[in-house]
Specification:
With 183 residues, this protein is α+β, with helices and mostly antiparallel strands. It has 2 domains: 44 residues; 133 residues, Immunoglobulin-like (Sandwich), CATH 2.60.40. Helix content is 27%, strand content 34%. The longest helix is centred in the first third of the chain and has 42 residues. 20% of the residues are buried.
Length: 183
């Protein structure tokens, strides 16, 4: 009987160790995958065409880029500014999101103001989004590529219902790259 008990104890200890090693390996794999996903989201800022559709019946086109961080706040606590651009037929739409809560999207008085390196500027003051006051809301504006031809964005002032903030352009992509990719 003693031999049987030792055999059973040894068997159980071995299984426990195997189970423990499997759990450890699984946890390491999950941690690695999680780290990979976080680093991919944080550092994958390549501008790409995410949607490229043509309706077979109407011929209408829909093109859209991915969301890319394009500017950083002059005050680090106010975070980043992200853009995504879409084109529906001939109309370009700029989607804008701030990592800092500036208020509601879609509210009267919201605007985005671009200051160019040559001292000129252009302002869009009709936020077309439905009113949304959640922390992660997105504004969008109809924009005209002609307003940006030959221009280099230096700063952006983004205003929502509660506050505005100034951002410095900090992207390898220019605003014209967004227009070009949805052309």
């Amino acid at each position: 009987m003693r031999t049987e008990i030792k055999t059973v104890e040894t068997f159980n200890t071995t299984n426990i160790m195997k189970t423990s090693n499997n759990k450890t390996n699984i946890m390491k794999s999950l941690a690695f995958i999680g780290l990979f996903l976080v680093s991919s989201v944080g550092f994958a800022q390549t501008l790409t065409l995410e949607q490229n559709e043509v309706d077979e019946f109407t011929g209408r086109t829909k093109k859209a880029t991915n969301m890319v961080v394009v500017a950083k706040s002059e005050i680090s606590a106010f975070g980043n500014l992200e853009f995504m651009m879409a084109r529906f037929q001939t109309q370009c739409v700029l989607y804008v999101s701030s990592s800092y809560d500036l208020g509601c999207s879609g509210a009267n008085g919201n605007y985005i103001h671009f200051l160019f390196e040559d001292g000129t500027s252009v302002k869009y003051d009709k936020d077309r989004a439905k009113i949304n006051c959640r922390d992660t809301n997105m504004s969008y504006y109809f924009v005209n590529s002609n307003d940006f031809k030959g221009k280099v964005v230096k700063k952006i002032r983004f205003a929502k219902s509660e506050a505005y903030n100034d951002y410095l352009w900090d992207s390898e992509n220019s605003i014209n790259d967004f227009f070009e990719i949805v052309k």
